[in-house]
Design a protein that fits this description.
This protein has about 170 residues and is mainly α. It has nine helices and two strands. The N and C termini lie far apart (about 40 Å).
C-alpha cells in the first residue's frame, strides 16, 4: 500500500502490465489484438498497438525479468521526478522505442513485436541518472551490484532476447 501512495503511476503501470500479460498468456485473441504489427501500423492500421504491445510479454521469463527490473527502479524514480513526469517518461519511451521497429519492419508482413523493454530501459536509466552507484541485491548473488552495472546487464539481456526470440 505504501508504494501505491508514494508512486501511484508506477503502481498502476506495474499492475496493468502484469495483469494484461497474464490474461494474454491464455487468450490468443487478446494477444493477437495487442501485439505490435509494424506492417499494419505503418499503413495507419492498428496504431494503438504501439502502446498495447508494451502491456504484453512473450512468456513468463520475459514478464518476470522486465517487471523485476521495473520494480527495482520505477517506484523510487517516480518519487524523485514526480507523478506526471514519470507517466510521461514511461508512455513516451514506450511509443518512441517502437518507432524504429515500425520503420525497420514496415514491409515485413510476418514480423510482430511485444514487450515493455523500451519503456523499462528508460525507467532503469532514469533511475541510474539519479543514483548510479546504488547497490542492488539480486538473488542468488551474495553481494550488491551497482545500478549502472545492472543497466548494462539489462541492455545485454534485451539485445540477446531480441536476437534469439522465436518468431510470431
Amino acid at each position: 500500500m505504501e508504494y501505491l501512495m508514494a508512486a501511484p503511476v508506477a503502481s498502476v503501470i506495474f499492475a496493468i502490465t502484469i495483469l494484461t500479460s497474464i490474461l494474454a498468456f491464455s487468450n490468443d485473441n487478446l494477444y493477437a489484438n495487442m501485439i505490435l504489427h509494424p506492417y499494419s501500423v505503418y499503413r495507419k492500421q492498428r496504431v494503438y498497438t504501439v502502446i498495447t504491445s508494451g502491456l504484453i510479454h512473450n512468456d513468463w521469463m520475459h514478464l518476470i525479468f522486465n517487471m523485476f527490473s521495473y520494480y527495482f527502479f520505477a517506484f523510487r524514480l517516480e518519487t524523485l521526478m514526480g507523478h506526471w513526469q514519470f507517466g510521461l517518461l514511461y508512455i513516451a519511451s514506450l511509443i518512441l522505442s517502437d518507432l524504429p521497429t515500425v520503420y525497420k519492419h514496415k514491409n515485413d508482413d510476418w514480423y510482430h513485436s511485444l514487450g515493455a523493454s523500451g519503456a523499462v530501459s528508460a525507467v532503469i536509466f532514469g533511475g541510474i541518472m539519479y543514483s548510479p552507484l546504488d547497490k542492488m541485491y539480486i538473488l542468488p548473488l551474495p553481494f550488491g551490484i551497482p545500478a549502472v552495472l545492472f543497466g548494462v546487464i539489462y541492455l545485454v539481456y534485451c539485445n540477446y532476447a531480441s536476437k534469439y526470440s522465436r518468431e510470431y
